[in-house]
Amino acid sequence: MKYFAAPLEKLIEQFQRLPGVGHKSAQRMAFYVLSMTDEHASELAQSILDAKRAIRTCSVCQNLTEGEICPICADKARDSSVICVVSDPKDLLAIERTREYHGLYHVLHGVISPLSGVGPEDIRAKELLRRVADTEVHEIIMATNPDTEGETTAMYLTRLLRPFGVRITRLAYGIPAGGHLEYSDEITLTRALEGRRDM
Description:
Layout: H1 6-16, H2 23-35, H3 38-54, E1 56-57, E2 64-65, H4 71-74, E3 79-86, H5 89-98, E4 103-107, H6 125-134, E5 139-142, H7 148-161, E6 167-170, H8 186-194
Parallel strand pairs: 3-4, 3-5, 5-6
Antiparallel strand pairs: 1-2
């Protein structure tokens, strides 16, 4: 049984399509939109349309951008000999927030996941190989998530990149800051031991 008018039900359904948004959250958002002034609701709708029309992928690194080349690739101060490979633009932002990395990126826009129907041809691997073949790259950092799909993707790319003779590294994984050893699983502890460094 429908409790709300059809346009409101449709709005709730649309919000529910967003990742991580359940029915109650979608209802809250829909009711909030209804409480907005016409001007603010129109601005929200227009900003969604503008973003969909204006945002594209960088021709170099595949990051999201408004122009042909993203600001990171256009920055001459960045170290172009190092490429950090990430699964999606959110991972790039996470690394940028550290302010410790000064090289370039390559965004795959996904990871290999046979269960989800995502194969090697569905990620931006060909573009990465083309970049490495056409530029002076000395190191590639695999920064995919340390889960099954991320590891599979990193191993697949490593196999493709080996013939280029470039150094391929993987992010070190281990115990998070503020974490406790007793709550860490065996894989995390193993990686922490393997990634140990001098003090």
